[in-house]
Design brief:
Layout: H1 5-59, H2 75-122, H3 137-148, H4 159-171, H5 173-182, H6 184-189, H7 196-200, H8 209-216, E1 221-222, E2 228-229, H9 232-238, E3 241-244, E4 248-262, E5 267-271, E6 276-279, E7 291-292, E8 297-303, H10 307-336, H11 343-364, H12 366-369, E9 372-375, E10 380-385, E11 392-393, E12 398-403, E13 408-414, H13 417-422, E14 428-432, E15 438-446, E16 455-461, E17 473-491, E18 496-497, E19 503-510, E20 513-518, E21 520-523, E22 528-533, E23 540-544, H14 546-550
Antiparallel strand pairs: 1-2, 2-20, 3-23, 4-13, 4-17, 5-12, 6-8, 6-11, 7-10, 8-9, 10-12, 13-16, 14-15, 14-17, 15-16, 17-22, 18-19, 19-20, 21-22
Helix pairs in contact: 1-2, 10-11
């Protein structure tokens, strides 16, 4: 253990003090004893004198003589008590000092050891610790049979020869122990037994992913004629599905580009009506995406008036208040006198003036103490917000924009006025987003005005899909009045765009052979297209997994 230097110094000082006290007490004891012995003869002499006096008195009267004062008889007992007390004091003080020194030494030793170990664990103390050498006894026991027997090493798989060689060695243990030091060189030259099992068991290596894929599935390949070999296993992994193309006559549609807009009946904007500072309600400021109800308080606008304007307003309010009081007193006085000329007319005039003054004061009071509540006009979701606590809003500035995601429309602008004239309100159509979402729409009507040389047309989305956003582009496929077109209708997912940007479909000519065909298409609705050329009737067209088939190119 490591003891700190302050602990050592304190222990030494405690021992020195104990020794000095013991020496002082030991030196004081003989002095007290010597003082008691010197006073004892003086006490005997008075006793002898008293005896002689008594004898003389018996013989005859004697003259009175002056006797010396007798010393106190308790001096001897006081001396003994002082010596015993000094001995007890010596023993008690010595024991206390030694006990206190041992306790403080142990405390300092423990604290020093704890600090040393803590510094070592924290990495502050870099002093290396002594490490005793570890001796593995199991290794010695394992090598003992090899050192004792000079016979050749027998494999572990043959137990019978090992028992025969072990019998003579067990018969003479004394000879074996004596022969071990002499045959040290021979045992060192003997090779250790070779573990046969460890050499047979080789570590398993992971199988490469490419090799495993080649074992499970056959690879696709491009043939010399431009077709592609796709094995059945790869087709199942791609979930490839095909359909036969059939020729039919389909009425062509018109593709109109537009964007998603909110329904005017379910769309509302919350604007500030005066210049003021925006304050949050007790429920907190609603953020984008929160649902709100009609009439819900979204915020408050506290009017902001400058120092000069505020002073002017207060002065005007004070003036109006004074005039109201004077006019009211004049009205009461006029009503009390019955012989005032034109009394009824003056009363009516004063009442009218009093009412006007009160209205003027009520118009100025909101500038000082009232606030405007911003309420939601419709049910919906917060689409946009510019509300920040403490922000100064301007009159007419939009603070919240509320949209109902379950009521959305599509606004389309067409440059040809005949398209809007031929469309009848209530007709059904289909729409498609760039992400592939399909939806059914109903034509609502168009306006007579022209916007940027185009006519706006409105379509209501019957069941808006989840995640549809306001402002997203949408393509509306509206049936027209043109003659029917002959072709092969296929799913829109069957048409893919090749690396050269040309539309193509995949035709399955054999069970494991596919050929890409360049086609020309025309839109029918949001989910179907009409293939005009490039594929013969009855061909098997891939309608599922087309995107993965395109990756083979």
């Amino acid at each position: 253990m490591v003891i700190n230097r302050p602990a050592r110094r304190f222990a030494r000082r405690s021992k020195r003090a104990a020794v000095a006290l013991s020496i002082a007490i030991a030196a004081a004891s003989p002095v007290a004893a010597h003082a008691g012995g010197a006073e004892q003869p003086q006490a005997v002499q008075p006793q002898a004198a008293t005896a002689n006096a008594s004898a003389a008195g018996a013989a005859g009267p004697a003259k009175p003589t002056a006797q010396p004062p007798t010393p106190a008889g308790g001096l001897e007992s006081i001396t003994q008590t002082a010596g015993a007390a000094a001995g007890y004091l010596y023993q008690g003080s010595t024991g206390l000092l030694w006990s206190a020194g041992d306790m403080l030494s142990s405390a300092y030793t423990g604290i020093g050891q704890a600090l040393y170990e803590t510094a070592y664990m924290m990495g502050v103390n870099k002093t290396p610790l002594p490490r005793p050498e570890f001796v593995d006894t199991a290794t010695d026991h394992a090598q003992a049979p090899v050192m004792e027997s000079a016979a050749p090493v027998v494999p572990t798989t043959a137990p019978a020869p090992v028992q025969e060689t072990a019998q003579p060695t067990a018969a003479s243990p004394a000879q074996e122990t004596a022969a071990v030091p002499d045959s040290a060189a021979e045992t060192a030259a003997a090779p250790p037994p070779e573990p046969a099992e460890e050499q047979v068991r080789a570590p398993l290596q992971p199988i490469p992913a490419g090799l495993l894929a080649n074992l499970v599935y056959d690879r696709s390949a491009r043939n010399a004629d431009g077709s592609y070999f796709v094995p059945k296993g790869l087709q199942r992994m791609f979930e490839v599905r095909t359909e036969r193309a059939a020729v039919s006559e389909v009425r062509a549609v018109r593709k109109l580009n537009g964007r998603v807009v909110p329904d005017p009946k379910a769309h509302g904007r919350v604007e500030a009506g005066l210049l003021g500072r925006f304050e949050a309600p007790e429920t907190g400021i609603p953020v984008v995406g929160d649902e709100v109800r009609k009439g819900q308080i979204l915020g408050m606008v506290v009017p902001v008036v400058g120092v000069v304007d505020r002073s002017s307003v207060r002065r005007e309010i004070a003036r109006l208040t004074n005039e109201i009081r004077i006019t009211a007193e004049s009205l009461e006085i006029t009503k009390q006198f019955s012989f005032v000329p034109f009394r009824e007319g003056k009363v009516i005039q004063l009442e009218t003036r009093l009412q006007g003054l009160r209205q003027e004061r009520e118009a100025l009071l909101p500038l000082l103490k009232t606030q405007e509540y911003l309420r939601a006009p419709v049910d919906g979701v917060i689409a946009s917000s510019t509300a920040v606590t403490g922000r100064v809003t301007q009159p007419g500035e939009m603070v919240f924009d509320i949209v109902n995601p379950k009521q959305l429309w599509v606004e389309v602008t067409v440059p040809d006025p005949t398209i809007a004239a031929e469309a009848s309100p209530g007709s059904r159509a289909s729409a498609r987003t760039p992400e592939g979402q399909s939806m059914a729409v109903t034509y609502m009507g168009s306006g007579p005005s022209v916007r940027q040389q185009s006519i706006p047309m409105l379509f209501r989305i019957d069941n808006p899909p989840k995640g549809l956003r306001v402002g997203r582009p949408v393509a509306v496929l509206m049936p027209g009045e043109q003659a029917a077109t002959r072709g092969m209708p296929v799913r829109r997912a069957a048409v893919a765009v090749g690396s050269d940007g040309i539309q193509q479909v995949w035709e399955q000519t054999e069970p494991e052979t596919f050929v890409p065909r360049v086609v020309q298409t025309q839109d029918i609705d949001a989910q179907t297209v009409l293939v005009l050329n490039g594929v013969t009737e009855g061909a098997r067209i891939v309608v599922r997994g087309t995107g993965l088939m395109t990756q083979l190119q």
